[in-house]
Amino acid sequence: MIFLLKNDPRAPFPAVKFAEQEPNGLLAVGGDLSPERLVNAYRHGVFPWYSDNEPILWWSPDPRTVLYPERVKISRSLGKTLRKEKFHVTLDTAFSEVIQACAEPQPKSPGTWLMPEMKVAYAELHDQGVAHSVEVWQEEQLVGGLRRLSR
């Protein structure tokens, strides 16, 4: 069952157990991208993912990738690469650049998942200290990164 969200960001999300199996994880449609709704969504394992000229679609696929930094195991080959000091990692030093890079279409995908209004919403969350970026640099060039939410 796919739920229709109202424009009240405080309204609770449906339980993720109601997410569709096909397409995997589709839970709801509609609502808005207010910081309050995004925090509420991520807190419950739900995230927005939609294309241009579509309504906002809210997903909670099973399984879902969640990284717990304290549980990350670095492989031997990655450890060797990191010890060569070719790269350095920073936190929250290039948030907008990471978001922009994430929004760039990939070679095998014609569009982007990070719509302009989503970039604005993540920037608001960053200003509130909720959204963060991890940047990977090779010399002075940004070569990788990710965004995360915390609270």
Set down the secondary structure blueprint:
Layout: E1 3-5, E2 26-30, H1 35-43, E3 47-48, E4 57-59, H2 76-83, E5 87-91, H3 95-103, H4 116-127, E6 131-138, E7 141-149
Parallel strand pairs: 1-2
Antiparallel strand pairs: 2-4, 3-4, 5-6, 6-7
Helix pairs in contact: 3-4
EC number: 2.3.2.6
Keywords: Acyltransferase, Cytoplasm, Transferase
Pfam families: Leu_Phe_trans (PF03588)
Notes on the protein architecture:
By secondary structure, the protein is α+β, with helices and mostly antiparallel strands. The chain has 2 domains: 3-59, Leucyl/phenylalanyl-tRNA-protein transferase, N-terminal domain (Alpha-Beta Plaits, 2-Layer Sandwich); 69-149, Aminopeptidase, CATH 3.40.630.70. Helices cover 25% and strands 23% of the residues. It has a 4-stranded mixed β-sheet. The protein has a 3-stranded antiparallel β-sheet with strand order 5-6-7, with helices on one face. Strand 3 and strand 4 (57-59) form a beta hairpin. The longest helix has 12 residues, at 116-127. The model has no long low-confidence stretch (mean pLDDT 91).
